[in-house]
Amino acid sequence: MNDVRLIPFEVKEVVEQSDEVIPQGVQLIEAPNVWKESEEGKGVVVAVIDTGCDANHPDLKGRIIDGKNFTTDYNSDEKNFLDNNGHGTHVCGTIAANKDKEGVVGVAPEASLLVLKALTKDGSGQFEWITDAVNYAVDWKGPNNEKVSVISMSLGGPQEVPELHKAIKRAVENNILVVCAAGNEGDGRDDTPELSYPGDYNEVIEVGAVDFDRKIAEFSNSNDEIDVVAPGVDIISTYMGGKYAKLSGTSMATPHVSGALALLINKSNKRFKRELTEPEIYAQLIKNTVTCGFPASAEGNGLVALATAEKADRVISALNPQKDKEVAKAIAAYSKENLPIGKP
């Protein structure tokens, strides 16, 4: 029985892409601003539970660390996780497409992808497949003992499933951030809730969609569990057959956040000189959001904008120059008392 599907999405057009571009969505969340300090997500593994991935796409070569097929496609061959729908490849490209001077660039172009095919060619699947994929991601270890840090799911269904909820809780308990699409049943009103699971579970990071003008996409679900919003209208990314396509949906917003988390994990761990926990990384994500002016039921904490915290620090410093002067005087006084005579 098929009881979960891809969250509906719209393929705007399939395009050819030669010269490399940084997609507008990647720029809107300010990913390039933090590429250097985050090492572009290098070493962070994102598990993508979707329709599979075109592992031969030029922009995804070297990004896929492993994969598995949980569906009946390809005669249930577990080793064949090739995308036969297009959706999964698009999601993977938004997260981690290479910086290779061709095609498009993902949010975290050095992150690694664990591709878990849990939806069939027609975009449908069983909750059991999704649950098994989540548990597999939690238990997976890479060739160099890598572990999954983020699970990305652009899928959903209308009913709660206790087994899937349990698997998600287990993932979070194992320090894995779970990112889910809010759904595309929105009616354009923020006071009428639309629910989709697993997105509506409190433990996940539920993602709504905005357009490039930072307006809530009319199709984006609204409810009290929305955490953040990200670009989800006319998003260009990788597609089957080595091509590229523009798609719209909260399915497209979700991988922007999954990639953003890969960057924040590296950036934050480096700053604090330790591995931050799942709640701590979530706090860093929320710290790097800006409101779009809509109710929380539509935008949650706001649009992900990865340079926000640093901009705020600079503004505070500029508004309080006296504090900087006091710090400089204290350092000078300490140096005068403690440095050997004759030393500068």
Index terms:
11 helices; three-stranded antiparallel β-sheet; 2 domains; 344 residues; disordered C terminus; alpha/beta; Rossmann fold
Please identify, by name, the CATH architecture of the largest domain.
3-Layer(aba) Sandwich
The dominant shape is globular
Unreliable segments of 5+ consecutive residues = 334-344
Amino- and carboxy-terminal Cα gap: 77 Å
Radius of gyration of CA atoms, rounded to a whole number: 21 Å
CATH-derived topology of the largest domain? Rossmann fold
Mean pLDDT: 90
Biggest β-sheet, characterized? 7 strands, parallel
Query: Going across the major beta sheet, what is the strand order?
Result: 4-5-3-7-9-10-11
**Oligomer kind:** single chain
Tally of structural domains: 2
- Share in helix: 25-40%
Q: Percent of residues in beta strands? A: 15-25%
The CATH superfamily of the largest domain appears as: Peptidase S8/S53 domain
Keywords: Hydrolase, Metal-binding, Protease, Serine protease
Protein name: S8 family peptidase
Domain Peptidase S8/S53: 41-291
Active site: 50 (charge relay system), 87 (charge relay system), 251 (charge relay system)
Chart the SSEs and their pairings.
Elements: E1 4-6, E2 10-15, H1 24-28, H2 35-38, E3 45-50, E4 64-69, H3 73-76, H4 87-96, E5 112-117, E6 124-125, H5 127-139, E7 148-153, E8 155-156, H6 162-173, E9 177-181, E10 205-210, E11 226-231, E12 235-239, E13 243-248, H7 250-272, H8 278-287, E14 289-290, H9 296-299, E15 303-304, H10 308-319, H11 321-338
Parallel strand pairs: 3-5, 3-7, 4-5, 7-9, 9-10, 10-11
Antiparallel strand pairs: 1-6, 1-8, 2-13, 12-13, 14-15
